[in-house]
Each structure stands twice: as structure tokens, then as C-alpha cells.
Amino acid sequence: MAYFEWADDMVIDGGAIDADHRHLVDLVNQLHSATTEGRGMEVVETILKELLAYTAEHLQREEQRMAELQFPDLERHRLTHAKFIADLQALRARFEAGSIAVAAQLSAVLRDWLSLHIRRGDKELLRFVQRRQRA
């Protein structure tokens, strides 16, 4: 069983946004597996770099899609994204400073953020699109 399982209630668009989210879930699971196998420090740098880059790309794509759809809560959503990127950068800085607990912390932070952000924040986009389609 994976550390973080994709679930039907996480589906947002059945397309690019969901594909991005699934990739991020896969990265979290890779990191967690390596950590539980005692290889966290071996892989955390590589996975952390990919997570930072991919997360930034994903959030940019998500915000662009929200702008195209004229999503009314885009600015608040951007702020949550910026805070998350700052949190990831802080974890990277702690890793670069030699913290050995970063791998496990990163797994938990990513799992929790992805789960909550997708199920709450990103679901707002889905509900917005559904309301527009009904109107």
C-alpha cells in the first residue's frame, strides 16, 4: 500500500491538472519509500529538486488555467501556492544545512498539503466550472 493514495475525490479536471497532481503523489510516495528503507538522505536531494521544479511548473499551469476560466478566487489561490513554495524552499534550505529529518518531514508536508489543497482549494475550481456549465 502506498503512503499516499490517489482517490476519486481528488479529481479536478480529468486532464492536465489531475495528471500533475498524480505525478506529485508519485514523487511523495517515492520519497516516503526511500525514507522507510533508510535511503532518504540518498534520494531526498534529487526528489526535492524535482518536486520544487515540478510543483512550480504545475502551480503556474494551474493558475494559468484559472485565469483563462476567470476563476474569481485566483488571487487567494496564488497566495496559498506562494506560501507552499516558500515552505518547500525552507525545507530545502534545512536539508542543505545538514538536517537529517528533512526527508520524513517533506513526505508528510507534501502528503498533507496535496491532500488538503486538492480536496479543498482545487475543488473550488471544479465547483466553479460546474456552476458555469449549469448556467
UniProtKB/TrEMBL annotation:
Molecular-function annotations in GO: metal ion binding
Keyword Repeat: no
Domain Hemerythrin-like intervals: 16-127
Keywords: Iron, Metal-binding
Cytoplasm recorded as keyword: no
Family indicated by similarity: Belongs to the hemerythrin family.
Protein name: Bacteriohemerythrin
Native organism: Paucibacter sediminis
